[in-house]
Protein backbone atom coordinates (compact mmCIF):
# COMPACT_ATOMS: atom_id res chain seq x y z
CA UNK A 1 0.00 0.00 0.00
CA UNK A 2 1.25 3.46 -0.92
CA UNK A 3 1.30 5.71 2.15
CA UNK A 4 0.08 9.29 2.06
CA UNK A 5 3.56 10.81 2.21
CA UNK A 6 4.55 8.95 -0.95
CA UNK A 7 1.27 9.79 -2.69
CA UNK A 8 1.41 13.50 -1.79
CA UNK A 9 5.07 13.77 -2.80
CA UNK A 10 4.40 12.19 -6.21
CA UNK A 11 1.43 14.53 -6.70
CA UNK A 12 3.46 17.66 -5.83
CA UNK A 13 6.30 16.70 -8.19
CA UNK A 14 3.87 15.97 -11.04
CA UNK A 15 2.11 19.32 -10.47
CA UNK A 16 5.45 21.17 -10.42
CA UNK A 17 6.28 19.63 -13.79
CA UNK A 18 2.86 20.58 -15.18
CA UNK A 19 3.42 24.19 -14.09
CA UNK A 20 6.68 24.31 -16.07
CA UNK A 21 9.26 23.92 -13.30
CA UNK A 22 12.51 22.20 -14.32
CA UNK A 23 12.65 20.12 -11.18
CA UNK A 24 11.34 19.79 -7.66
CA UNK A 25 13.14 18.51 -4.56
CA UNK A 26 11.91 18.25 -0.97
CA UNK A 27 13.75 18.55 2.36
CA UNK A 28 12.74 18.24 5.99
CA UNK A 29 12.28 21.73 7.47
CA UNK A 30 14.74 22.45 10.27
CA UNK A 31 17.78 24.46 11.34
CA UNK A 32 20.56 24.63 8.72
CA UNK A 33 23.46 23.69 10.96
CA UNK A 34 26.17 23.69 8.30
CA UNK A 35 25.11 27.04 6.87
CA UNK A 36 25.02 28.91 10.21
CA UNK A 37 28.79 29.36 10.80
CA UNK A 38 29.36 29.97 7.09
CA UNK A 39 26.80 32.77 6.93
CA UNK A 40 28.02 34.30 10.18
CA UNK A 41 31.65 34.38 8.96
CA UNK A 42 30.60 35.84 5.57
CA UNK A 43 28.66 38.65 7.26
CA UNK A 44 31.39 39.32 9.84
CA UNK A 45 33.87 39.80 6.97
CA UNK A 46 31.47 42.33 5.38
CA UNK A 47 31.16 40.30 2.18
CA UNK A 48 27.62 41.71 1.83
CA UNK A 49 28.83 45.30 1.23
CA UNK A 50 25.84 47.65 1.36
CA UNK A 51 23.36 44.75 1.27
CA UNK A 52 22.31 45.40 4.87
CA UNK A 53 19.21 43.27 4.42
CA UNK A 54 21.47 40.19 4.43
CA UNK A 55 22.13 40.85 8.13
CA UNK A 56 18.43 40.97 9.04
CA UNK A 57 16.47 37.97 10.31
CA UNK A 58 19.62 35.90 10.84
CA UNK A 59 17.70 33.20 12.76
CA UNK A 60 14.88 33.04 10.22
CA UNK A 61 17.35 32.63 7.37
CA UNK A 62 18.61 29.47 8.99
CA UNK A 63 15.35 28.02 10.27
CA UNK A 64 12.18 27.89 8.13
CA UNK A 65 10.12 26.82 11.13
CA UNK A 66 10.41 30.45 12.28
CA UNK A 67 8.90 31.63 8.97
CA UNK A 68 6.00 29.20 8.71
CA UNK A 69 4.15 27.95 11.75
CA UNK A 70 4.51 24.20 12.20
CA UNK A 71 6.66 23.94 9.05
CA UNK A 72 7.55 20.33 8.20
CA UNK A 73 8.81 20.40 4.60
CA UNK A 74 10.69 22.74 2.25
CA UNK A 75 9.70 22.19 -1.38
CA UNK A 76 12.45 23.61 -3.64
CA UNK A 77 11.74 24.35 -7.29
CA UNK A 78 13.87 25.38 -10.28
CA UNK A 79 12.57 27.42 -13.21
CA UNK A 80 14.65 27.72 -16.37
CA UNK A 81 15.34 31.20 -17.79
CA UNK A 82 18.05 30.43 -20.35
CA UNK A 83 17.15 32.43 -23.48
CA UNK A 84 16.99 31.08 -27.02
CA UNK A 85 18.74 34.24 -28.28
CA UNK A 86 21.19 36.54 -26.53
CA UNK A 87 22.31 40.14 -27.02
CA UNK A 88 24.82 41.02 -29.72
CA UNK A 89 28.48 41.10 -28.69
CA UNK A 90 28.80 44.76 -29.67
CA UNK A 91 26.43 45.90 -26.95
CA UNK A 92 26.28 46.72 -23.27
CA UNK A 93 24.95 43.65 -21.51
CA UNK A 94 22.31 42.78 -18.99
CA UNK A 95 21.99 39.50 -17.13
CA UNK A 96 19.96 36.90 -19.00
CA UNK A 97 17.58 36.53 -16.08
CA UNK A 98 16.38 40.11 -16.66
CA UNK A 99 15.54 39.75 -20.37
CA UNK A 100 11.84 39.13 -19.80
CA UNK A 101 9.28 39.94 -17.14
CA UNK A 102 10.35 40.19 -13.51
CA UNK A 103 10.70 36.62 -12.32
CA UNK A 104 9.32 37.41 -8.85
CA UNK A 105 5.81 37.85 -10.27
CA UNK A 106 6.03 35.00 -12.78
CA UNK A 107 7.18 32.47 -10.17
CA UNK A 108 4.91 33.73 -7.37
CA UNK A 109 1.89 32.99 -9.59
CA UNK A 110 3.12 29.44 -10.27
CA UNK A 111 3.80 28.85 -6.57
CA UNK A 112 0.34 30.11 -5.61
CA UNK A 113 -1.17 27.73 -8.14
CA UNK A 114 0.89 24.83 -6.80
CA UNK A 115 -0.14 25.53 -3.21
CA UNK A 116 -3.80 25.92 -4.23
CA UNK A 117 -3.62 22.63 -6.13
CA UNK A 118 -2.14 20.92 -3.05
CA UNK A 119 -4.93 22.30 -0.87
CA UNK A 120 -7.56 21.04 -3.30
CA UNK A 121 -6.09 17.58 -3.72
CA UNK A 122 -4.38 16.83 -0.40
CA UNK A 123 -6.59 18.71 2.02
CA UNK A 124 -5.64 21.29 4.61
CA UNK A 125 -2.12 22.46 3.78
CA UNK A 126 -0.70 25.60 5.35
CA UNK A 127 2.32 27.21 3.79
CA UNK A 128 4.06 30.19 2.23
CA UNK A 129 5.72 30.83 -1.12
CA UNK A 130 9.20 32.39 -1.30
CA UNK A 131 11.07 33.86 -4.30
CA UNK A 132 14.46 35.21 -3.08
CA UNK A 133 12.95 38.39 -1.58
CA UNK A 134 12.49 36.76 1.84
CA UNK A 135 15.09 35.48 4.32
CA UNK A 136 15.37 31.96 2.90
CA UNK A 137 18.72 30.42 1.91
CA UNK A 138 17.34 29.07 -1.35
CA UNK A 139 20.58 27.60 -2.72
CA UNK A 140 21.21 25.72 0.52
CA UNK A 141 17.70 24.22 0.48
CA UNK A 142 17.88 23.35 -3.22
CA UNK A 143 21.21 21.57 -2.65
CA UNK A 144 19.87 19.78 0.43
CA UNK A 145 16.94 18.48 -1.61
CA UNK A 146 19.18 17.07 -4.34
CA UNK A 147 18.47 19.61 -7.10
CA UNK A 148 22.17 20.28 -7.67
CA UNK A 149 25.38 21.16 -5.83
CA UNK A 150 26.88 24.52 -4.88
CA UNK A 151 29.54 25.38 -7.44
CA UNK A 152 32.79 27.26 -6.87
CA UNK A 153 30.96 30.43 -7.97
CA UNK A 154 28.45 29.67 -5.16
CA UNK A 155 25.61 29.11 -7.66
CA UNK A 156 23.61 25.92 -7.73
CA UNK A 157 24.80 23.68 -10.57
CA UNK A 158 23.23 20.63 -12.18
CA UNK A 159 24.74 18.12 -14.59
CA UNK A 160 21.58 18.13 -16.69
CA UNK A 161 20.95 21.85 -17.33
CA UNK A 162 23.78 23.92 -15.85
CA UNK A 163 22.78 26.91 -13.71
CA UNK A 164 20.58 29.35 -15.65
CA UNK A 165 17.49 28.90 -13.52
CA UNK A 166 15.63 30.60 -10.68
CA UNK A 167 15.17 28.91 -7.30
CA UNK A 168 11.97 29.20 -5.29
CA UNK A 169 10.37 27.47 -2.29
CA UNK A 170 7.10 26.48 -0.74
CA UNK A 171 7.44 25.91 2.99
CA UNK A 172 4.53 23.77 4.13
CA UNK A 173 3.18 22.13 7.28
CA UNK A 174 2.84 18.56 6.01
CA UNK A 175 5.30 15.66 6.14
CA UNK A 176 6.53 14.43 2.77
CA UNK A 177 9.17 12.07 1.39
CA UNK A 178 12.58 13.75 1.48
CA UNK A 179 15.30 13.81 -1.16
CA UNK A 180 19.05 13.64 -0.55
CA UNK A 181 21.91 15.91 -1.56
CA UNK A 182 23.94 15.05 -4.67
CA UNK A 183 27.74 15.04 -4.97
CA UNK A 184 29.88 17.95 -6.15
CA UNK A 185 30.98 17.74 -9.79
CA UNK A 186 33.23 20.81 -10.07
CA UNK A 187 36.37 18.70 -9.77
CA UNK A 188 39.60 20.61 -10.45
CA UNK A 189 37.87 23.15 -12.70
CA UNK A 190 38.49 26.82 -11.84
CA UNK A 191 36.94 28.40 -14.96
CA UNK A 192 34.62 30.69 -12.97
CA UNK A 193 37.39 31.84 -10.60
CA UNK A 194 39.80 32.53 -13.47
CA UNK A 195 37.23 34.43 -15.55
CA UNK A 196 35.87 36.84 -12.91
CA UNK A 197 37.27 40.27 -13.87
CA UNK A 198 36.83 41.74 -10.37
CA UNK A 199 38.20 38.68 -8.52
CA UNK A 200 34.96 38.39 -6.57
CA UNK A 201 35.34 34.62 -6.08
CA UNK A 202 37.93 34.97 -3.34
CA UNK A 203 38.32 31.22 -2.85
CA UNK A 204 36.47 28.19 -4.20
CA UNK A 205 32.82 28.34 -3.04
CA UNK A 206 33.17 31.81 -1.47
CA UNK A 207 32.03 34.95 -3.30
CA UNK A 208 32.72 38.41 -1.90
CA UNK A 209 29.36 39.98 -2.74
CA UNK A 210 30.83 43.48 -2.41
CA UNK A 211 33.25 42.82 -5.32
CA UNK A 212 30.73 41.29 -7.73
CA UNK A 213 29.70 43.14 -10.91
CA UNK A 214 26.07 42.33 -10.11
CA UNK A 215 26.50 44.10 -6.78
CA UNK A 216 28.03 47.21 -8.35
CA UNK A 217 25.39 47.49 -11.07
CA UNK A 218 22.29 46.63 -9.00
CA UNK A 219 22.79 46.89 -5.24
CA UNK A 220 25.34 49.70 -4.84
CA UNK A 221 23.66 53.07 -4.30
CA UNK A 222 26.86 55.15 -4.23
CA UNK A 223 29.10 55.98 -7.17
CA UNK A 224 31.06 53.12 -8.68
CA UNK A 225 34.56 52.74 -7.17
CA UNK A 226 37.20 54.06 -9.56
CA UNK A 227 39.33 50.94 -9.21
CA UNK A 228 36.60 49.04 -11.07
CA UNK A 229 37.02 51.19 -14.18
CA UNK A 230 37.80 48.94 -17.15
CA UNK A 231 36.96 45.76 -15.20
CA UNK A 232 33.20 45.64 -15.78
CA UNK A 233 33.33 43.93 -19.17
CA UNK A 234 30.42 46.06 -20.51
CA UNK A 235 27.86 44.72 -18.00
CA UNK A 236 25.22 47.38 -17.39
CA UNK A 237 22.93 45.28 -15.16
CA UNK A 238 24.03 42.10 -13.43
CA UNK A 239 26.70 39.76 -14.79
CA UNK A 240 26.73 36.22 -16.19
CA UNK A 241 30.48 35.66 -16.66
CA UNK A 242 30.94 32.93 -14.05
CA UNK A 243 27.93 31.10 -15.49
CA UNK A 244 28.83 31.63 -19.15
CA UNK A 245 32.25 29.99 -18.66
CA UNK A 246 30.98 27.07 -16.57
CA UNK A 247 31.36 23.82 -18.55
CA UNK A 248 28.05 22.52 -17.16
CA UNK A 249 26.20 25.34 -18.92
CA UNK A 250 26.93 23.68 -22.26
CA UNK A 251 23.82 21.71 -21.33
CA UNK A 252 21.56 24.75 -20.88
CA UNK A 253 18.45 24.52 -23.02
CA UNK A 254 16.20 27.47 -23.95
CA UNK A 255 13.25 28.04 -21.62
CA UNK A 256 9.66 27.74 -22.81
CA UNK A 257 8.15 30.49 -20.66
CA UNK A 258 6.72 33.22 -22.96
CA UNK A 259 6.85 35.76 -20.11
CA UNK A 260 10.65 35.47 -20.05
CA UNK A 261 10.97 36.41 -23.73
CA UNK A 262 12.75 39.76 -24.17
CA UNK A 263 11.22 42.94 -25.49
CA UNK A 264 11.78 42.82 -29.29
CA UNK A 265 14.07 45.88 -29.21
CA UNK A 266 16.38 44.64 -26.46
CA UNK A 267 18.50 42.11 -28.38
CA UNK A 268 19.26 44.48 -31.24
CA UNK A 269 20.31 47.47 -29.09
CA UNK A 270 23.82 48.71 -29.92
CA UNK A 271 26.17 50.55 -27.58
CA UNK A 272 25.01 53.79 -29.19
CA UNK A 273 21.37 52.91 -28.48
CA UNK A 274 22.23 52.24 -24.86
CA UNK A 275 24.22 55.45 -24.48
CA UNK A 276 21.34 57.48 -25.95
CA UNK A 277 18.59 55.68 -24.03
CA UNK A 278 15.75 57.96 -22.89
CA UNK A 279 13.47 57.46 -19.94
CA UNK A 280 10.61 56.66 -22.35
CA UNK A 281 12.64 53.90 -24.05
CA UNK A 282 13.72 52.58 -20.65
CA UNK A 283 10.06 52.38 -19.59
CA UNK A 284 9.01 50.67 -22.82
CA UNK A 285 11.82 48.08 -23.08
CA UNK A 286 11.98 47.27 -19.37
CA UNK A 287 8.29 47.75 -18.55
CA UNK A 288 7.95 44.64 -16.38
CA UNK A 289 11.62 43.67 -16.15
CA UNK A 290 13.85 43.24 -13.11
CA UNK A 291 16.03 46.00 -14.66
CA UNK A 292 13.53 48.50 -13.25
CA UNK A 293 15.15 47.86 -9.89
CA UNK A 294 18.04 50.18 -10.75
CA UNK A 295 15.63 52.86 -12.01
CA UNK A 296 16.53 54.93 -15.06
CA UNK A 297 19.11 57.02 -13.15
CA UNK A 298 20.87 53.90 -11.86
CA UNK A 299 21.13 52.40 -15.33
CA UNK A 300 22.47 55.71 -16.70
CA UNK A 301 25.08 55.79 -13.92
CA UNK A 302 26.20 52.29 -14.89
CA UNK A 303 26.36 53.13 -18.58
CA UNK A 304 28.32 56.36 -17.96
CA UNK A 305 30.83 54.38 -15.90
CA UNK A 306 31.27 51.85 -18.70
CA UNK A 307 32.08 54.44 -21.35
CA UNK A 308 35.78 54.38 -22.26
TrEMBL record:
Keywords of this entry: 4Fe-4S, Cobalamin, Cobalt, Cytoplasm, Iron, Iron-sulfur, Metal-binding, Oxidoreductase, Queuosine biosynthesis, tRNA processing
UniProt keyword annotation of Transcription regulation present: no
Residue positions binding cob(II)alamin: 61, 132, 153, 156, 167, 214, 239-240
Residues holding [4Fe-4S] cluster 1: 186, 189, 192, 246
Main location class: cytoplasm
UniProt record similarity statement: Belongs to the QueG family.
Protein name per the record: Epoxyqueuosine reductase
Organism, as annotated: Flavobacterium cerinum
Amino acid sequence: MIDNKQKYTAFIKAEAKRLGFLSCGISKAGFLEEEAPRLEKWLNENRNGQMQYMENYFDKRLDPTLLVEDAKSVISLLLNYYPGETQTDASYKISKYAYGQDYHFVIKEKLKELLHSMQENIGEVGGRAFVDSAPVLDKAWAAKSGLGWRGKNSNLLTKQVGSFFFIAELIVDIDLEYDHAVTDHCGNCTACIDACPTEAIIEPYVVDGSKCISYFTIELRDNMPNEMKGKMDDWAFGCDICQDVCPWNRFSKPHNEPLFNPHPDLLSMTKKDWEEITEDTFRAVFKNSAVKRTKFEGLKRNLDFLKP
